[in-house]
Protein 1
Amino acid sequence: MTWKVLLTDGLEENGKEILRAKAQVTDQPGITAEELLKVAGEYDAIIVRGRTKVIPAVFDAAANLKVVGRAGVGVDNIDLAAAKSHNVTVVNSPIATTLAVAELAIGLMFAVAREIPRADAGMKNTKWLKKELEGIELNGKTLGVIGFGRIGVATAQRAAAMGMKIIAFDPQLSASEITSRGGEPVMLDDLFARSDFITLHTPLTNDTRGIINAASFAKMKDGVRIICAARGGVIDEAALLDALNSGKVAAAGLDVFATEPPGESALASHPRVVATPHIGAQTVEAQVRAAADIATEVLAALNGETLRWRVA
Ligand SMILES: NC(=O)c1ccc[n+]([C@@H]2O[C@H](COP(=O)([O-])OP(=O)(O)OC[C@H]3O[C@@H](n4cnc5c(N)ncnc54)[C@H](O)[C@@H]3O)[C@@H](O)[C@H]2O)c1
């Protein structure tokens, strides 16, 4: 049986090669929502990244669909309830992008601690901002990690190597699990009160939406720095903007936004925000790993083999 697989957000060549050995592959990067509804019925599997929204109407339209694959980790663009009710398996490639996102989180920490983007912008504008640019060191600071899974732990390990003290909040892990992963387990309010830097690494769920909000900022140290390479919705953006403007938050490093791209955004253009366009997973190595992992996993799902990363 030759399976028919649709790629809607592109895939690295190595992943396509793995698929082509066992399936007929159609590559339609950038396909619109309307076009997807028209063609979905032809395919046994659809592989997406974060752009394509696999909404209930797609499942309704896709009579032959057996598998949706997400090259990457976050599956908030796939309606898992609709997948279940249509008996469609959902798989992702969760380990491929861990290091890329962790390294970006560390990069954003340095960027906000030393204002590297502002320094560079000055140089490009013949401004020597040496006196204005007195930063802080990461060494000796407390890093509060919200969500102590793969990326949270990888970020924490790198931060610990730079001399940071790691405290972590993750209600789905026991205290001993957090300790064994290298963090001091704390309650959320304790994390807010003690952290010099806070980095978020949770999925976006009903529990994590707005987990950082106006009330949380009130509990934080003055001059706290916030890093987010998780999902835009986990921070209440209006509250973050207020906290930046009041000086409560010294700086923020943001890779993700509630709406992407955010367009004219007071937050992204704020002078004490370092903003990046959701590039956490955008490394050569991560994309090659994600392509291989998702291609293998989708074929395994189509062939009824054991799955490593079944989400639904
Ligand atoms: N910026 C990017 O490009 C990019 C790329 C990949 C992943 N991500 C984001 O990073 C997230 C984490 O990825 P991961 O591989 O580490 O996932 P993971 O599942 O290994 O870790 C997530 C952790 O969050 C914890 N968690 C869940 N609800 C929580 C809550 N209410 N409070 C605190 N912790 C909670 C879970 O227990 C888990 O340990 C993804 O869900 C995705 O949203 C972003």
Protein 2
Amino acid sequence: MKLIMLGTGNALVTECYNTCFVLEENREYFLVDGGGGNGILRQLKDAGINWKKIHEIFVTHKHVDHLLGIIWMVRMICQYMNQNQYQGETRIYAHEEVTALIREMTPKLLTEKEAQFLGKRLHLISVEDKEERLILERKVTFFDIHSKKAKQFGFCMELGKGQKLTCCGDEPYNDWEEAYAKESRWLLHEAFCLHSQAEVFKPYEKHHSTVKDACELAERLKVKNLLLYHTEDKNIRNRKSCYFSEGKNYFHGNLYIPDDLEVLELEEE
Ligand SMILES: [Zn+2]
């Protein structure tokens, strides 16, 4: 299985795209979040992913840097369904508040011809906390991260041989998520900025964490591979090296700070 980072930045970035990614296996794709708009199409194109092959989508929460790219996906998919150029069905998973929002917005935003596919071939699927679904033929468990801002879900995907990939969304881990995050082979976690620059970027005011925080957490949870995303973009050229040199002091597994469009092989043992 491959993880393709489409975007790695926080909501306000201009030097990269907002955090969203694709999991790929056997030419099947699972898109997680859409970033803030039409840029999703550019990122997919540059990643060499044919968006018409995307049939499984998950939206973590309703913030515009995650949701609005999904509206673009819905628009494109319905438009191409109408032209007989998109085959099969689409499933968009999210908690009830998000599916309700998409269900309310899209008929008003799409043409009548496009909107006819909503609920018929494009399905909005509300998932509950701890609900399991089969996606890319793997068990995925969605879970409530208990955000104090907007209700948000993360997910845990089984990778086989008891290994798992856990995505904590775009807020710091809390103990509700322990059963999923602990001993993950892959942990995807936000890090707004370096700990050494917390005074500049004020991550805690925004309910985010630093590289050091995320690395200490992953060390404590015995994670094997830690991937940091949803960062600031003020020094994007050196982000990877700066974040890595801070993080390696606190985390002794494999630390990844991907750039947009970077591809990671999620090899299994
Ligand atoms: Zn966000």
